[in-house]
Amino acid sequence: MQRKRCFLFTMITFDVITIFPELVEAFGKESLLKRAQKKKLLKIQAHDLRKWAKDKHKTVDDKPFGGGLGMVLRIEPIYKAVTALKSEARNSKSETNSKFKSSQSKTILFTPRGKKFTQKMAYEFSKFNQLIFICGRYEGVDERVAKHIADEELSIGDYVLMGGEIPAMTVIEAVARLIPGVVGKPAFLKERLIKGSGGPKNGFIEYPQYTRPETFKEWRVPRVLVSGNHQKIGEWKAKHGQIVGKQ
What we know:
2 domains
């Protein structure tokens, strides 16, 4: 009897450090992510970096040493934020984090210089209990954050955005959909796994999709998809599918 391969997942807390927490809060209140949080499959928390600023004006940025355009996010509030969030996770009395260890937390800084985010990374990140995302703004973040605070520097592509909030939300979606129950039945994920790949870390098959009406103007759905011949349909999907996320 062949033993089924299974993957173990724990509830993940996504802690996003940003100066625009409303962006992330709105993101977590919609659709599947909202339902997943209600079912306690995951938790998305947006934290205003200004909360950890030490002056009355809640200043979190300053001019760069050596000159340059724009402002740079300071290291002090970021250090305080990351330290506080890790401590909060360790001290949590919930069943999920009752045996929390530092190795179960990962701190990520989003930067154009970082490693390119992949499906394999999404699978690896899904094993953590806590993911702390540092979202840069302005001209960047004090380099000591990358060297001494973040565990990893990450990028979602070869382009520059206004901040790290969109990359953070991208990673949250990619990781969240790997958690059983978030996107629906487990079969939804298994259908597109590459056979014999050893798990979602090695990629998915993405193939063209069609729905009603069968004919629109002169554009028809491929006949094989409405034939009812499941073997032929499977062959069509294999032929037209493309592998994404494979390392």
